[in-house]
Design a protein that fits this description.
Strand order of the largest sheet of chain A: 8-9-10-11-12-13-14-15
Helix content of chain A: 25-40%
Distance between the termini of chain A: 59 Å
CATH architecture of the largest domain in chain A: Alpha-Beta Barrel
Number of helices of chain A: 15
Number of domains of chain A: 2
Oligomer: homodimer
Strand content of chain A: 15-25%
CATH superfamily of the largest domain in chain A: Metal-dependent hydrolases
Radius of gyration of chain A: 22 Å
Shape of chain A: globular
CATH topology of the largest domain in chain A: TIM Barrel
Amino acid sequence: MENVMDNSGLDILIEGGTLLTMSESMNVIENPAIGIKDGRIAFVVQKKDVPGKDTYTAKTVLNASGSVIMPGLINTHTHLPMVCFRGLADDLPLMEWLNNHIFPAEARFVNRDMVYAGSMLAIAEMILSGTTMFCDAYFYESSVARAAVDSGMRAVVSQGFIDLPKQNDPVKIVDIAETFIKKWQEKAPLIIPSLACHSPYTCSPETLACIKDVARKNGVLYNIHVSETKEEVAIINERFGKRPVPYLRDINVLDDLTLAVHCIWLDDDEIEMLHECDVKVSHNPESNMKLAAGCAHVPIMIKKGITVGLGTDGCASNNDLDMFGEMATAARIHKVIRMDPTVMDAKTVLRMATISGAKALGIEDQTGSIEPGKYADIIIVDMDKPHLTPLYNCYSQLVYAASGSDVKTSIIGGNIVMHERKLLHIDVPSLMREVRTIAHAIAENSFSGG
Amino acid sequence: MENVMDNSGLDILIEGGTLLTMSESMNVIENPAIGIKDGRIAFVVQKKDVPGKDTYTAKTVLNASGSVIMPGLINTHTHLPMVCFRGLADDLPLMEWLNNHIFPAEARFVNRDMVYAGSMLAIAEMILSGTTMFCDAYFYESSVARAAVDSGMRAVVSQGFIDLPKQNDPVKIVDIAETFIKKWQEKAPLIIPSLACHSPYTCSPETLACIKDVARKNGVLYNIHVSETKEEVAIINERFGKRPVPYLRDINVLDDLTLAVHCIWLDDDEIEMLHECDVKVSHNPESNMKLAAGCAHVPIMIKKGITVGLGTDGCASNNDLDMFGEMATAARIHKVIRMDPTVMDAKTVLRMATISGAKALGIEDQTGSIEPGKYADIIIVDMDKPHLTPLYNCYSQLVYAASGSDVKTSIIGGNIVMHERKLLHIDVPSLMREVRTIAHAIAENSFSGG
């Protein structure tokens, strides 16, 4: 795409600092100027080369000196409303955590209002820590979508399906899926509808296949948890006589618009199969560590050419949504697991959290890097701080030393949603009050053993 | 120790919020009042029970509502001046990193001024992220000690010894060790001198033993890196026909004032031996992961009753000094390594970063918990933030969701060193300028292949 400039002026001009474009060539520009108009990036040049600089006007000029300008981070796997369960039950065996804490709390407290409030709070946390886009699946997903619209956050929202407690009627779920897609396609480009089947072990082959059919017909993403635990692999093996990935391939749900989440317990053949089918992977290392699920073979996947995006998972198993922390963990965990300090270098990890995340969600032509024509999904990270000094290498510094609280400005589709650490479209104090009221009821219920 | 109150007034009174005392009983007080006088904690009570509250005065009153009050974090292993090498060389094989980047940079750029400036910057970062005490070893350690004195930071500073490039003269090093101890004992209680031998594989048995003798005679801590890599175990085995821990025991350097750092490649007998000798351990998970060194069997050590403190290691291998991040990593890494989500629960990890750290350094009677009579080494963490909402469990929230930037006030020995994120005794901008100048020279040298 080319730099474009007419004489009618810019919405935003960002000047100064260091620009990490995260483009294919990983172009880095010192002292850049980035023009933003109608939600998109109009030009990316060195400040001295701004096109027509003597004649144009910009409504807002942002000075980024002492800062890094980079694409907003993309969180490829979330269950936003679970912020309401943050810290409710930790350090427990997986089944006790799920059956005695999370499932009962969900059964009793999840409703439209809780989902909306939880999503808004999660979005506040995400914007404050540099995330400009997420991919979510939860109950009442339309309320997640509304929260994204109301806060100006870019989102892939997934209508989810699960055959628990009983098998779904295929006619009904196809209708639900199609209705959801139509409804939310109207809110493009901020909202991108998609579909999710919970997992191979909680959905029947009929549900998995018919929802994939709807996804294919509508050209939307299909999310599915795959092989998060050893146990599920055994379940699928027992039921179908094969491991999860060949099973999913054989029922024809694997293609380039399938996002397989976790992918921890894969053998070499399964990794090869994901690559052949061009399936995308969402890697959630902090959740996987905290739940003792395991550690996906991400360095091998990336080497093979599989697109891997980064995600936090829900807040009950993380317990935050800070993609900077997630990057640091992703960079460190694979080194010690593989006993090789050269794997998952900082550049690779930063790509995973930006352009590879966009690829994983099928929208790399629109976001994930700072290039003319793409949406202006941009963050400015303040590097003028003791813990970010000195600065030899921006990639290393962002991955190993920066944290979400170093982000000073966040722009989504040309809309400044956070500046100088203040959220511009969210009333944080009243939102925190609302979630605390919900949490109070959950805690009373939980601690009384009810 | 008992609550004490006379009528002459307090220096500081902290009121409101939630107090995690981190005492033996893990007492938690809602809406507490903590009185501070002459650098020490005078009383810890509920606000309604403040002794003589109608008559006393406090020079400074800190309102901690919406916050957690807790002991300052104790970083049990640092090489502070290495902040100057933060991000200089990452994602490299260990020997390439050391031999081609770190050692040449140290040989050429380490001097008194660099050590002082680097230490000041590291202390700024540490105070801003809730650390109130560290244990350090590096070249020109007196300059580290001076930085601690000048910034009001509590520190164990270690005169280090290494038999590289050649064997030291025992008479000389005993003299150096004794001179260092005498010099810095004068700056008690803020500064606590100690001694460090680099490792069993870089120090001769004579040096290891004669420095331990000086440490014993003077009642000071003896630091040593132990079994950070598999390779060192093989070296010791080859040289002495035994593994590192029995070797160190046999030359009589293991006792309750020995702090063994890393301790990754220990077998069961060695863990038992550390326990028998009451040796303390410093666990540095982020550095160990990033360098692909391995993961210490900390859950087993703690279960056995070994005191394990937490540390960040130097900034060239981490790359930050944020003990909150280190806690989150410590809590998560062992769960996935042991495939058990119940190990290293949040309380255990928070103890490791506070009272167990104090025990590891041999000063648990003076700091590490908030109890009357101890030094007022206290931090106030602002919990009124989206990523810390809702709040079911303070321990979980601090370990899994909080970050260093949530600390709003830091007090060391009754001296407020940081308030509302502003450092009160350090000129941060001029310090960052100075370190950038040093880094500029390092980068020029490094990148030109010199």
